[in-house]
Amino acid sequence: MERKEDKxxxxxxxxxxxxxxxxxxxxxxxKRAGRTLLFIDxxxxxxxxxxxxxxxxxxxxxxxxxxxxxxxxxxxxxHISFPVGRVEYLALxxxxxxEFLGAIGxxxxxxxxxxxxxxxxxHNRTMKLFNEYVLVGGMPEAVAxxxxxxxxxxxxxxxxxxxxxxxxxxxxxxxNLAMRNVxxxxxxxxxxxxxxxxxxERFANSNYKSREMSKALQTLEKAMVxxxxxxxxxxxxxxxxxxxxxxxxxxxxxxxxxxEAGLQRELFGIADISQSWKGKIAExxxxxxxxxxxxxxxxxxxxxxxxxxxxQAEVDFLFQYDGQIFPVEVKSGDNSKLKSLQLxxxxxxxxxxxxxxxxxxxxxxxxLPSGKKYTLLNVxxxxxxxxxxxxxxxT
Length: 395
Hints:
The chain has 395 residues and is α/β, with parallel strands linked by helices. 42% of the residues lie in helices and 16% in strands.
């Protein structure tokens, strides 16, 4: 829809059948019996194309239609209204580790990973590849270039291009100059706060007030450039985030974070990513992996918080599966370092907890001072995207 001649098709014709016929003629394609996919890119540029999605659905049910575009533009432009009940919304995530393995020619390892069936003998090799994934991230262009050249330095151009694109979008679609400046500040200075709880007032050493910073961060969250992850204070279902508490800042992609925060040198060749940058990159990539397999735009990550004067604790993530809540910590070392997790399990009705680390899979059977017993699953980082299957095997 960025091409004038393509956009004019949707502006000129009013029925789905006429539009489809015009597309076939313009693209010099013959109608054939069988399954046909119509892919409409940058659809936010044509409100009439958006409106026609309803009639593609109702009048041409045999036609498959995918519409894609800049979510930032789509959500901000109040003139565009998607047909309710006629469109299925799917979120496109960065590549997962398994997809990264497939891209670099490690298909057998990818298949074994997805089956949660990796032999212990190749754990170290898999962790080495996972650490490469942490550096590269999951942006498809970055993954493709790395697969071709195996050169981390060459990825700088890709990251710069992506970030400039985000900045250009923010300037183009900001409601006013003040909002434009706040968005640019976040996209320039906010990367180093990845995985941290933040306050809106004077965020990233700025002079911006809480109200204007909150609006800007929420705008970027709608665009899925970042997520504001709020804590819950309960250990039971349902998970109810407390919006009065400070959120944790999670960016779209860990590779972008590494590049913009200048972390490649610190992370390159490191044996345990949980020992780098106060463990925030390890936490960030686990959070990204937990989200990777969900195509729902409403999926949000949350964490557990105990914030009282005499007792403070924080569990990195909560994972919901099969009607239960499982606490997730991202931390290597012995179990004495998992005090927040122990406190959560003391209050929880559950009997399984998860710790992601750089070692092979194992189980610890723990008895709390209260006498309650639970199982701690020690899961290697590379299984983060497979956590449902890990839990299925354990429950």
